[in-house]
Recover the amino acids of this structure.
């Protein structure tokens, strides 16, 4: 399998065109019935090695209106459940979200779970009062490579996570994880930030949170050549279609032991002030497979 191609499928496009169309539709929807409040969303999501995750999620709904309510509730793309709730009462109902999975056992895998709640096909009038959903890794798995939105990590011999929020609308949860023996966390920073015309240092801190030594790590990063320029070893100017130009930077690290951390930096020149933009994530490739992906850096004023 071409793992570089798969990497592009997994992380290059987090939101597909069809999903964007659904998001646009959601943004113009009417809201659900007044006074029907989702007080809690709780449950479990268990990631699997080589299969779609399993879910066990319950919603607690309170009817604070002056009328009885009969309708449906569920997650976007999943099965809706009928519910009848007399005024002043509360009920808890199990609902199954839509789950998308891509990957191969023993390698990098992606799970997308749409937790967008719909009532009678519309968004609820009020945000969910509290969300507490536990996320577990497959047995033998290393820490998550990436999660959107971010999860709270419980450190331990076997990492676990919690999707937690208060007073927020729920949204799709996308997780990238690997069962390969190498898993590299990358933290990307730019100095200075805010960016003004002149030299800028890009720093990538790599930590091998996997179980084995990573060998022959290929570190890749990219910037917009309209904003930055770079010369010397490691830099390449990519010319694609119209409006598709990238300043690419690449570096090979001989090895990084399990639990080991190192920081690698390179310098570019800012062609002017750069702000109000999120830079691309950096990545690490080991044995032609994605082994790590960084945060996206937001450049502020």
């Amino acid at each position: 399998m071409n793992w570089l191609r798969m990497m592009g499928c997994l992380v290059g496009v987090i939101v597909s065109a069809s999903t964007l169309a659904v998001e646009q539709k959601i943004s113009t929807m009417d809201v659900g019935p007044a006074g029907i409040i989702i007080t809690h969303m709780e449950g479990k999501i268990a990631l699997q090695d080589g299969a779609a995750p399993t879910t066990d999620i319950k919603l607690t709904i309170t009817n604070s209106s002056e009328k009885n309510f009969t309708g449906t509730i569920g997650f976007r793309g999943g099965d809706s459940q009928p519910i009848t709730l007399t005024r002043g009462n509360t009920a808890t109902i199990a609902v199954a979200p839509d789950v998308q999975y891509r990957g191969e056992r023993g390698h990098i895998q992606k799970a997308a779970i749409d937790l967008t709640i719909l009532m009678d096909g519309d968004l609820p009038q009020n945000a969910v009062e509290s969300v507490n959903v536990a996320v577990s890794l497959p047995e033998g798995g290393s820490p998550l490579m990436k999660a959107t939105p971010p999860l709270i990590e419980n450190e331990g011999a076997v990492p676990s996570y919690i999707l937690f929020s208060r007073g927020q609308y729920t949204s799709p949860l996308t997780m990238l994880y690997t069962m390969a023996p190498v898993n590299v966390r990358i933290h990307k920073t730019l100095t200075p930030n805010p960016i003004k015309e002149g030299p800028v240092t890009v720093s990538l801190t790599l930590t091998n949170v996997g179980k084995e030594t990573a060998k022959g790590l290929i570190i890749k990063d990219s910037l917009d050549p309209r904003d930055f320029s770079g010369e010397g070893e490691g830099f390449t100017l990519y010319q694609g279609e119209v409006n598709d130009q990238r300043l690419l930077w690449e570096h090979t690290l001989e090895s990084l032991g399990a639990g080991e951390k190192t920081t690698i930096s390179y310098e570019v020149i800012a062609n002017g002030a750069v702000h109000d933009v999120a830079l691309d994530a950096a990545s690490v490739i080991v044995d032609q497979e994605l082994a790590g992906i960084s945060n996206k850096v937001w450049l502020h004023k």
Notes: Residues 1-28 have pLDDT under 50 and may be disordered. The longest helix spans residues 17-27.
